[in-house]
Write a structure and sequence with these properties.
This is Metal-binding protein. This protein has a single domain, classed as DNA Methylphosphotriester Repair Domain, CATH 3.40.10. It starts with 6 loop residues before the first strand and ends with a helix. It is built from three helices and six strands, in the order ββββαβαβα. It has a four-stranded mixed sheet. The mean pLDDT is 92. The protein is an alpha+beta fold and 87 residues long. Strand 1 and strand 2 form a beta hairpin.
């Protein structure tokens, strides 16, 4: 019997839930930020041994925003600039 793979994503309510689809964005729970999965800053932090225990994943950008996260200035500079100017 084949077992279906699931991923744990963060929902609009900020709570984790199992998903049959992987997230398209990664985030940092403690920093309340999200970005691309190939973000240079996140990958460097992971390589140094940090970040992983606070790592979260989102299905899409709208979900990350509603959950209270902000865009990463490194991998999403345009989105970050819009977020910053709206504050």
């Amino acid at each position: 019997m084949a077992r279906e793979r699931t991923w744990t994503l963060i929902g609009r309510d900020g709570k984790p839930y199992p998903s049959p689809v992987p997230g398209s964005l990664g985030g940092h729970r403690a920093g309340r930020l999200y970005g691309r999965l190939d973000c240079r800053a996140a990958l460097q932090a992971i390589a140094r041994g940090g970040y992983v225990k606070h790592r979260v994943f989102f299905r899409d950008e709208a979900t990350a925003i509603v959950a209270g996260y902000r865009p990463c200035a490194v991998c999403m500079p345009a989105e970050y600039a819009r977020w910053k100017s709206s504050r």
